[in-house]
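Hello forum,

I keep getting stuck at the same step: I have a sequence, I want structure tokens, and every attempt I make locally crashes halfway through. Rather than fight my setup again tonight, could one of you with a working pipeline run this one for me? It's a single chain of 390 residues.
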Amino acid sequence: MYEFRALMDRFWVTRAENGDLYFSLKRTLPDYRRLVNELLGWNLVVNESVIKLEKVPPRAMPWMGIQSFQEPLDYCLLCAVLLYLADQDDGAPFLLSSLTQAVETFLGDVCPVDWTRFLHRKSLVRVLQYAQEIRLVLVYDGNSALFGNDQNQEVLYENTGLSRHFPVHFGRDIMECRSIEDFEALSWEGDDTEQRRRRVYRQLILAPGMYCLDQTQSDYDYIKNQRRTVNGNLDQFLDGELQIYKNGAFFLLAEGERCGMLYPGTRALSDAALLLCAQLREQIRQGVYPRQADDTVLLTRREFRYEVERCRAQYGNGWGSQMRACSLERICQELIFYMASWMLLEDLDEDILLYPAVGKLVGIYPASYQNELGEAEEDEPLENEQAGIS
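Reply #2:
Ran it on my machine without issues. Output:
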């Protein structure tokens, strides 16, 4: 269903910016309300200005969050900006200088900011650009980015009034919450069966997959026992296929369908990850790296670095100019972060834990590829292959 995918693909849909989709979502609301309320247990905000699906995950993961944010300070500043906007009337104009003064006051006892510091100004720039992107504010005159280089830069904004719909509505008091786990616990209500069902659907919809681990065994058993029902519901609203293996379950979108962030993507880093996974899969098959009882594989950082070095030596000239210019250490860091974001591996303190999907999501270059340095800046698409480690 296009409408539900549109809600999944966006933070929200505003009437002012996308009126056609807004009214389409309101018209088809009965079609996807059961999935939202019963199967996912999410809150759906519908009013005269915005429609927003509050996509609360089953558990917080490191890769979740606002992609453009880089520091914890970014989130602190966003909270302060939301507090400032809450005090403004809808449609009211305001200046950047008044916003920065208010932010200093709000964060004075929590996370003091100093606008003479370049890093603090850049952090606010990221927040302001994000606020503009999702239309919390509109810019009438000036450029938010210039504040990064000049703290005296002035910008005229308008408050759209959408800020009051930005926070998640937990429906209960959150003043006693002190950890991520406390907030996660607020999202669960109902009996154990209902909670398990909602965890399963949230995991399959929001995350790359679900592995059969000790802490998820009951959820994985639910997927196996209810595979037809789960697959039917997900296919109806997202158009894809539920694939279940002895070590994990994955919901893959149908060919040509797009929703949210996709793997593999078009970046050279995505190519490198697919090629590395294919190489690691072959090494595991040959017994170079033994599998554990749960089909995970533990590598030392030295072993992971060695495999990345081998992969770069064989395919590196096809990775594009930016990756070719990176050091081996930088490529390793980028691959670890990227692959961890897609649940292909876990970055432990001393080791790298490979998950079973490393053997499922692999790629190869065309047979004609000779690792020659080309003139093009962009990489050719990979010939993608999906297979499990057997």
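The chain has three domains: 72-165, 188-262, 268-386. If your local run keeps crashing, start a new thread with the error log.
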